[in-house]
């Protein structure tokens, strides 16, 4: 019934790209964000405009990464002679990582909005509700930042690969 909004495949494919060093990646992409989320529960927000700043940043990230998806799709159409399979795999995994960042950025944006609604709660109920949202938001935001670093590394490697191939072709123009 809700298959058109089922995003499980996006999450599954993102985590599948982290398989090469499973223990290290679990530490970096799950344990570290959980620890940061737990710490965030005990920190009182020092900036009353933080929600607005984070909402703006996430909105910009979402637009940026949608454009980056278009760039990644165009990279798949570039003819490369050497190491096609490795390049195809890096492009595919980068696509999954970018899609995941867009998804969790949208969820984090929704959490910022939820945090500012009290749903008729007061007292300890409201505190628990808001702290829970802060935990989940901080967990997701840490994952966003870590995945952005991963995407930057992969895009750097893709362009480095293409530049090296271009330089080889320039040195050997007769091999065309």
What does this structure look like?
There is one protein chain. This protein has 176 residues and is mainly α. It has a domain at 49-163. Helices cover 77% and strands 0% of the residues. The protein contains five helices and no strands. It has helices spanning 8-16, 22-41, 50-75, 84-115, 124-171. The chain starts with 7 loop residues before the first helix and ends in a 5-residue tail after the last helix.
Blueprint of the fold:
Layout (H helix, E strand, L loop, with lengths): L7 H9 L5 H20 L8 H26 L8 H32 L8 H48 L5
Helix pairs in contact: 1-4, 2-5, 3-4, 4-5
Condensed summary:
This protein has 176 residues and is an all-alpha fold. Helix content is 77%, strand content 0%.
List keywords for this structure.
176 residues; elongated; mainly alpha
Our estimate of the beta-strand percent is under 5%
Total strand count, please?
0
What order do the SSEs take from the amino end to the carboxyl end, as H and E?
HHHHH
Which percent bin holds the helix content?
Answer: over 70%
What's the mean pLDDT score? 87
Mind summarizing the main beta sheet? none
Shape: elongated
